């Protein structure tokens, strides 16, 4: 009876969004929708958790339902107005991910983390590339209008894209399950490492693709990415030191400070990138995710206020997760599946199989080796950003790659959290309490 009542409340909230968002100012509409996302997302997550599914699946599902491809409550204009909330959430979740990486536990698992990271980065990327280069090119949309080098370039980038992960999804599921132990700590450490590594590999991949399609080598982009990584880590260390100093000196309300910090970091990073681009004509992009992961790790492990910092993040993480994943669900381009379903499905299958194989090999002596593979399926923010960069760099065929990437990411983002929750609940070295 309670579940029926809760479901009725959710339906009522959805109907309210359609009734009250007509003939109102854009700002009032965006504010109203943000509030209803928080209420509706919380209820949707609760309903799905009662049947054993991750809460973020409910958040994503509500976002898809309210998005432009369903009820269109969150249309592109509203999504743009709420974009700052998504940016805040990405930076805040990165701070939380850094706070979960405890140095002592990482030292104990460093061998497994390195083995899994290198195994997946090598085997998964090569497997996906080989499949699409040798067989799968026939399934690419508009493949008849592409040359052999362009098909090879798409295969290279799909192979590298397969390495990218979603730290936000991993952290959300770990938090929901209240998972502790070697298995969740290893999964989160590998997820963050692979997400950073994918940025480096993508920079090299873009240079390779430039050479394939135009017989010229653009090393400037690869050097710029190196500067981005060094600059991001340096800014993260400085931010972490500043936060640690403040936490040690001021007994204030930390959650508000951390939310404000997350929003400021994103805009400062974008401001620096715009300045360098305008004054030096360099395509610099400081990644807020890398800055905040480094800052969170610094505060948690290199200051006396690490535990207080982690508690403050945990106290406000729920509304941040609800907003982020509902807006992420609304932004999923499910329409792209109509034209690329075959290529996207093949990508998901080949990537999933190679993930399982590489994890089994790398952790074959680990008692939980069989569960690592399905813990790394999710893809999100960084993956989408990389896909858009390809469109900018290669307008002739970049849209083909981006369409497949968005469709495949949509599938992985829906099935990944469910698979990860199963792994966390089944692994021997994972203690959960949902």
What's the structural blueprint in terms of helices and strands?
Blueprint: H1 2-20, H2 26-49, H3 55-66, H4 76-81, H5 83-100, H6 103-134, H7 148-161, H8 167-177, H9 182-214, H10 219-249, H11 254-280, H12 288-302, H13 306-315, H14 317-331, H15 337-362, H16 369-372, H17 381-393, H18 398-426
SS summary, helix count:
18
What is the domain total for the residues?
Answer: 2
Quote the distance from N terminus to C terminus. Answer: 22 Å
Radius of gyration: 21 Å
The CATH top-level class label of the largest domain: Mainly Alpha
Note the run of SSEs as H and E. HHHHHHHHHHHHHHHHHH
Secondary structure class reads mainly alpha
What attributes does this structure have?
mainly alpha; Na+/H+ antiporter like fold; 18 helices; 2 domains
Explain the overall architecture.
The protein folds into two domains: 2-81; 89-426, Na+/H+ antiporter like fold. It is built from 18 helices and no strands. The protein has helices spanning 2-20, 26-49, 55-66, 76-81, 83-100, 103-134, 148-161, 167-177, 182-214, 219-249, 254-280, 288-302, 306-315, 317-331, 337-362, 369-372, 381-393, 398-426. The radius of gyration is 21 Å and the shape is globular. The two termini are 22 Å apart.
């Amino acid at each position: 009876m309670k579940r029926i009542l809760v479901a009725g409340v959710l339906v009522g909230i959805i109907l309210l969004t359609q009734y009250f968002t007509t003939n109102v100012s854009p700002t009032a509409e965006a504010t109203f929708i943000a509030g209803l996302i928080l209420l509706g997302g919380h209820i949707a997550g609760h309903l799905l958790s009662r049947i054993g599914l991750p809460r973020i699946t409910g958040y994503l599902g509500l976002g898809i339902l309210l998005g432009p491809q369903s009820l269109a409550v969150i249309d592109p204009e509203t999504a743009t107005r709420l974009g700052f909330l998504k940016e805040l959430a990405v930076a805040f979740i990165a701070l939380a991910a850094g706070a979960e990486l405890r140095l002592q536990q990482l030292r104990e698992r460093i061998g497994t983390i390195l083995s899994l990271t290198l195994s997946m980065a090598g085997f998964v990327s090569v497997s996906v590339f080989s499949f699409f280069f040798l067989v799968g090119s026939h399934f690419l949309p508009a493949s008849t209008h592409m040359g052999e080098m362009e098909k090879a370039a798409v295969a290279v980038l799909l192979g590298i894209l397969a390495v990218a992960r979603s730290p936000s999804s991993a952290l959300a599921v770990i938090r929901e399950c209240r998972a502790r132990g070697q298995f969740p700590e290893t999964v989160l450490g590998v997820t963050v490492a692979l997400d950073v590594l994918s940025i480096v590999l993508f920079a090299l991949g873009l240079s390779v693709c430039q050479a394939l399609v135009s017989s010229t080598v653009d090393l400037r982009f690869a050097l710029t990415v190196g500067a981005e990584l060094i600059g991001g880590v340096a800014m993260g260390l400085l931010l972490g030191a500043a936060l640690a100093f403040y936490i040690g000196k001021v007994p204030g309300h930390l959650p508000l400070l951390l939310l404000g910090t997350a929003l400021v970091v994103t805009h400062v990073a974008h401001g620096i990138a715009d300045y360098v681009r305008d004054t030096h004509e360099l395509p610099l992009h400081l990644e807020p995710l890398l800055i905040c992961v480094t800052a969170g790790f610094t505060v948690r492990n290199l200051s006396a206020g690490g535990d207080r910092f982690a508690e403050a993040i945990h106290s406000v993480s729920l509304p941040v997760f609800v907003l982020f994943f509902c807006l992420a669900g609304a932004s999923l381009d499910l329409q792209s599946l109509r034209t690329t379903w075959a290529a996207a499905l093949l990508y998901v299958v080949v990537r999933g199989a190679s993930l399982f194989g590489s994890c089994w090999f790398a952790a074959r002596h680990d008692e939980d080796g069989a569960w690592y593979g399905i813990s790394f399926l999710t893809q999100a923010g960084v993956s989408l950003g990389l896909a858009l960069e390809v469109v900018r760099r290669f307008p002739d065929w970049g849209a083909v790659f981006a369409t497949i990437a968005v469709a495949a990411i949509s599938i992985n983002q829906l099935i990944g959290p469910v698979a990860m929750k199963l792994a966390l609940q089944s692994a021997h070295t994972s203690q959960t309490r949902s």
